[in-house]
Structures are given as C-alpha cells and as structure tokens.
Amino acid sequence: MIQRRSRFAAFLAVGILVSSLSVTASAQDVKPKAGDWPWWRGPTHNGIAAEGEKPPVEWSAKKNIVWRALVPGRGHGSPIVVGDQVLLATADHQHDLHAVYCYDRKTGNVAWKTVVHEGGVYRGGNKKASQASTTMACDGERLYVSLLNKGAIHTTALDRSGKKLWQTKITKYIVHQGYGASPLIYKSLLIVSADNKGSGVVVALDRKNGEQVWRNKRPKKPNYVSPVIVNVGGRQQLVLTGCDLVSSFNPLTGKKLWEIAGATTECVTSTVTDGKHIYSSGGYPKNHVAAIRADGSGKIVWEQKERVYVPSMLIHNGYLYAVADRGIAICFKSDTGKVAWKKRLGGTTTASLVLADGNLFATNEKGKTFVYKANPKKFEQVAVNQLGDHAMASMAIAGGQIFTRVAEHTDGKRQEVLYCIGKKAD
C-alpha cells in the first residue's frame, strides 16, 4: 500500500538547501533534475528511470555495493533521491515515533533526522503492513510525507535541512489493512488520498503552506492506492482506482471528469497509461487486470483474471509488464490484453517493477531481484541478485545507482538497511 508503494507491501519507501528541482512558477510543473528520483515511481511517475540511466544488473552483499546504512525502525516506503540526499520515512515502535531520515548520497552517513510525530504510532493492521509505507515526495525546496498517526492521516512538509514547515490533518482514518498512499506533487499543489471505511477523501493542499485548495469525498471503503496523474485522452487526469470504481478528476480543481464501475474494492497499484488507456489491477474481492478507455466512455477494452494486487505495472513500447503477487512475470499486449509470455520467478512479490536501460527489475519479498529484458518476444533473464532476506519497498534508480531498502535478520532480530548499489569510484 504501499507505495508502497511501495504500496501494500507496503501494505501490506546538515542537508543541502540548494534546490535540485526546477520550478519556474507555482503554476508550472515541477521538473526533476537529471539524476534524481524525487517521488513514488520515479521522475515520470511510471517506474521508468530517466533515459541514459545504466545501473548495475549484478550485485550481492560484496559486489557493486557503494555503501550500506542502517535504518532505525520499520517502513516499506521507497527511498527518494534528490541532489545529495537520500530520504525515507520510518516508524519506530520502540520509541513510539515517526521520523524522516536523510542520508548523504555519497557516503550513506546520516545527515539529519526529524521526528515528524511523537507518540501515536499504530500497532495493528495487516501483518505485512508497516506504519511508514508511504514514499516521500520532494519539489526541490520542500519534502512531503503522509502518515497515519493517532487515528488520522497527517501530511507534513519539511525543508531540505529537516526543519518542519507545516503539518495538516487530512482526515480520520479507520484501519482495515494499513495506510501507504504516497503524496503527489502537481504544479502548486500536493495531492493526498486517504481511502478508508470511515471518511475517505482525496485532497489538494497548497505546497507552500499546507492549506486546503480542494477536497472530494470518497466511498466509505478500504483502498490503498496513491494518486497519479497521467497524460491520457488528450489531457492530464488525476486517476484513482479502487472502491469499486475508476475515477478521473481535473487535478487543479478536483472536478470529477468521469467515473465508472471498473475496478475491485481494494486496489494498491498505481495506474499507468499508453496514452489511450489506463490500467486497473486488483485482488479483492476479485483478481483482475483491465484496460479502460480514458475518454469518459467507460469502455473496458480488455480484462484478464490475473492477481496483480500489490506490485504496480509498467508500460514500455506497446506492452504492459506486470509481476503477479505470487511471483509470476507477465507480458501483455497493452491494446488487446493478449498474453505474450509468462514466467514464474518465484516467491511472493510486493515491490513494484522498475525499468532502466531496457532491463526490468523485480524484487520479491525474500530480497531476491530478478533482472530481465523488456522483451515482448520472450522472457530473457539477465541476472538474479540477493540482498537481505526481506524486501517490501520498491527500488529507486538515479545517477546510475540503485537505492533499495531491505531487512536483514540476525539471531531473530530484524534490522532494516538502505543500500546504494553501483560501481565504486576509482
């Protein structure tokens, strides 16, 4: 639900003050700087690394590791990478707090830590869930994180040195499985979703001060998706799947553009688009992957009964790549839904797919990452790598390096670790 986003796996990711993103005006889009991965699912919100990124395809605890850093507490949110900073949120049950940690990108040393919430960390929910399953977002000047604390969802903004700027209560929250929706930056806004059985909402805040710009009620149903904006059907649309709906909004005003009964009740994945369709997937109460026309017609173009519940999918060159929760890689023709190939990878998968340099990276819950070509003709394995023994968060790929959050168990004790995978400088 993580975002984890990662998402369900989520379910169920002294500071540099110089901006590393460019914002020409509050009404303009925030454009990531080359070499950054500043929010959930990367620069273009779809799991695809920037052109020219060539991260290693092979690694181990002793190979292609630039640094290894301990992460206090627990969380399934992905790391983000902005300038000289690598950032993530964590829930420390021992000290009953939520915190944000900033690591030096070059060394892995902790640059700063900010306690976002003291007390009020939830201790229930699905056994797979963490209480820091959201992935942070950065607009170059401010860092944003949304967390469940004291029975409500709160969004907090920090500056790049870790100073708390504002904190806004989004809504009360009834826990069914957990919370892991990641905040979304759009022009001058920060968009936050909090679907739940009590008072589900999607809200847009002013990024500068946290004040509400628009607010829409959502059905009183459990759901875990992060908001995503896709350029589809000739316009930018804010899309939310789940709550038995596929819903599209004008991201600047919150006005509903269209809505259809085209998804399951509980969804986790962030939708992707090929420019004409958006893709919904879920696992409760039914398994499905579906392509939906994004023109408001409500037409479901194709549907397959695959359980792609937690790991978000990825579109590349007319094909939809997915990993089913049970560890099966699938390649669909994106316009027809025809299955080009399937391959069992093994293990349960929560982390979302990422793509760089023509290679797909799929990490299972045991910390094993399968690297294979984005090749629609056949499954073509490149490498299989192991780090840690528990992995729920999705990878970040930036500056030719991979940043991944895993856990290692020693003598029955769980320790989270943040790795920077890459070639060491000579």
Describe this protein with a few key phrases.
mainly beta, four-stranded antiparallel β-sheet, Methylamine Dehydrogenase, Chain H, 0% helix, disordered N terminus, 426 residues
Topology summary:
Blueprint: E1 21-22, E2 31-32, E3 65-71, E4 80-82, E5 85-92, E6 97-104, E7 110-118, E8 137-138, E9 142-149, E10 152-159, E11 164-172, E12 184-186, E13 189-194, E14 201-206, E15 212-217, E16 228-232, E17 235-242, E18 245-249, E19 256-260, E20 277-282, E21 288-293, E22 300-304, E23 314-316, E24 319-323, E25 328-333, E26 339-344, E27 354-356, E28 359-363, E29 368-373, E30 381-386, E31 396-398, E32 401-410, E33 413-421
Antiparallel strand pairs: 1-2, 3-33, 4-5, 5-6, 6-7, 8-9, 9-10, 10-11, 12-13, 13-14, 14-15, 16-17, 17-18, 18-19, 20-21, 21-22, 23-24, 24-25, 25-26, 27-28, 28-29, 29-30, 31-32, 32-33
